[in-house]
Amino acid sequence: MTHATFAFDNSYARDLDGFYVPWRGDVAPAPRLLKLNKELASELGLDPESLPDDEAAVLFSGSQMPEGAAPLAQAYAGHQFGGFSPQLGDGRALLIGEVIDRNGQRRDIHLKGSGRTPFSRGGDGKATIGPVLREYIIGEAMHALRIPTTRALAAVATGEQVLRDTILPGAVLARVASSHIRVGTFQFFAARSEVSRLRQLTLYTIARHDPDLIENGDITGAAVLGFLSRVIDRQAKLVAQWMLTGFIHGVMNTDNMTVSGETIDYGPCAFMDAYDPRTVFSSIDTHGRYAFGNQPAIAQWNLARLAEALLPLIDDNESTAIDQASEAINGFPERFEAAWAAGMRAKMGLESAEEGDATLAADLLASLRASEQAPAVDYTLTFRRLAAVAGGLAEHPGPAGEDGERFRAFLQAYTARLDRDSMPAEQRMRAMLAVNPLYIPRNHKVEEALAAAVAGDLAPFNSLLDVLSDPFTERAGLEAFAEPAPADFGQYRTFCGT
């Protein structure tokens, strides 16, 4: 019997009857705690020191629900690689409830891999240790990089063997989000022309995420349009942060895009080593739909699907609603470019803004791409080396710039640009090091940690988590975590793990 208690306030279950199926997770045969995020548990009001590992394993495997939980599988639809599926839903996941954390913020507690649900579509509803710990690693790395994200609360081995291409050890991930409301949640009801439920969902979502838009307990067309605008803004800023750090989500379906602006569903995701906008890691993205360089356009496409779903609530006149929604969606590129340009100025150590800064940044990126004469250059390390240039400690950023004529041209323009900026060199270098990470989840290090964990050794996993918890500060002895993959690592491929 678990004694862990959360101060549940389950508004989704209470206010949105008919938007989900009440459900419980499978009982794990031999649950074993792999990792508990004690810092996050404390934020949620749980005392991790008073929670024995065996109780945490039972709780976060879904085997037993804590008092006050209201476990449910959420309904949603989604465009998957461009094709619409009118019913997806939580096929291997459960929302067990919501808590108000110590900062007064509402947070979902959610399980992945807890078993089959009515939305499983023939799947077994299970997850395995590798994908669960991958999501733990990447989500916590994103948090440390200050990118909005769902977070891992716990990882539990179930003691069950799960059949994939081979037999693998089963696991469940407990994660936390400000909500799990997706673009696909709106699509679910819009596709069924259930306008009353669509309105109910929209009112609930605005009350939860943008309450200032509500007047007298209700929403107007202007409020719905304002909500759409805010979702656009949140996603523009989020995807800009992905692009600035070299992150590739890998499966940007509309059911994997939250209206809260948090990164969600870390399946075939990865960070680039060598810079190339065509980079694809996902084994199922055979046509490169979700390649690194396509992510802003795909985000806008997804948001257009949200706008379509909201049309009946924006204005009774469909033509007017389309015009207003289209204007909002067409504003995405400008918002994205503004967020990306501001982030790139910070990465390049520019305190002031000039009209040519975006071109300067584009020239830098173009110089990093592979050509017939030279291989692509490491994206993350280039900016750390550039900080040394900006701080006056190097004439060029090491091997990244020695052979490239295009890079030398950029460096000349960059140096001239620094001369027109007012920030002192030492301060500039400190500022650049504070926003340009040294340690990211390098793919070869992630795979090393996951392989060891599946074999029963969690030490590499824990070491990698510790390194990634402070990605900006150089630490002695961690040089191997900052290096790109060795040449014999080969072409990297990731998998959804479903």
Q: Between the first and last Cα atoms, what is the distance in angstroms?
A: 30 Å
Mean pLDDT: 93
Q: Biggest sheet, in brief?
A: 6 strands, antiparallel
Helix coverage percent of residues?
Answer: 40-55%
Residue windows where pLDDT falls under 50 for at least 5 positions: 398-402
What is the string of helix and strand elements? HEEHHEEEEEEHEEHHHEEHHHHHHHHH
Q: Please give the radius of gyration in angstroms.
A: 23 Å
Helical run tally: 16
| Sheet/helix structural class | alpha+beta
Strand content: 5-15%
The best one-word shape is: globular
Number of E strands = 12
Structural summary, described in words:
By secondary structure, the chain is of the alpha+beta class. Among the domains are: 11-180, no CATH class; 184-340, no CATH class. The protein is 42% helix and 12% strand. It is built from 16 helices and 12 strands. The chain has helices at 11-15, 38-43, 53-61, 129-144, 183-191, 195-209, 221-245, 295-314, 318-330, 332-348, 357-368, 379-390, 405-419, 425-435, 443-454, 459-468, and strands spanning 20-22, 32-36, 72-74, 78-80, 83-85, 93-100, 106-112, 127-128, 151-163, 167-177, 247-248, 270-271.
